[in-house]
Automatic annotation (TrEMBL):
The active site is at 53 (proton donor). Belongs to the aldo/keto reductase family. Coiled coil: none annotated. SUPFAM superfamilies: NAD(P)-linked oxidoreductase (SSF51430). Keywords: NADP, Oxidoreductase. InterPro entries: AKR (IPR020471), Aldo/ket_reductase_CS (IPR018170), NAD(P)_OxRdtase_dom_sf (IPR036812), NADP_OxRdtase_dom (IPR023210). The lineage of its organism: Bacteria, Bacillati, Bacillota, Bacilli, Lactobacillales. This is NADP-dependent oxidoreductase domain-containing protein. One of its GO terms (molecular function) is oxidoreductase activity, acting on the CH-OH group of donors, NAD or NADP as acceptor. Gene3D superfamilies: NADP-dependent oxidoreductase domain. Substrate binds at residue 115.
Amino acid sequence: MIHSLTDTILLNNGVKIPGFGLGVFQVSNEDTIFSVQKAIEAGYISIDTAQIYGNEEGVGEGIRRGLAATGKKREDLFITTKIWNHQLDYDQTITAFNESLLKLGLDYVDLYLTHWPGNNEYLTSWKAMEELYIAGKIKAIGVSNFEIHHLETLLETAKVTPVLNQVELHPRMAQKEMRSFLQEKGIAIEAWSPLMQGQLLQEPTILTLAEKYHKSAAQIILRWHVQNEIIVIPKSIKEERIASNADLFDFELSTEDLALIDQLDNGTRVGPHPDTFFFE
């Protein structure tokens, strides 16, 4: 379990990923610049973006400003991006990666993910990602929104085992079967939409615990992730919330209170199902 913003989790290839970071889904380039800079100034070292978000340039500029403001170096940060569904053949994957690298203004990324399974097209894309990884342009490769059966298929032929699966995960969609499978395979799990796009912030159980611990509802939910050893990347464009989201390391939920939150799990998604999502 992590105990600070800079604490890391060891991935299966020996690379260390911060257990807590900033996501920038549905954030404009301008707001992304601000959010990333302020996150780095607040002590964040992990930033998660994607090709489809359209804000990789904003992430890159935010990184440059954040590094200038703090004196940190590029190697102090952990940057993740993802390839979208329309570029999953071999050559397109290489092209998409190089385009992302150019937009970010970086020489390498720390983690590159296949964003969705894409009707099994990921098998071809994965071969290109493996080559980029072996060439040292990516520190680690993984997947996002993969179901267990997608991972089982990939593992049959993969030369490089994914380090991580990034999935929708929150107290209403706790992904217990997936977490068990990934633990068995030595693959880390990372949560997108950890606050269920804000839908859990008025949940009575969460509000009761927030009052008990003198914390916000968001902090209670994010602490639940941390204590379950789930890597988490909440999004915010507000400086005070970026700082507040990370204020998780001065309290601990009891075993009984963790169990109360666990009882909220009913399999409710806010995003599409990987097996039925329109992949184009």
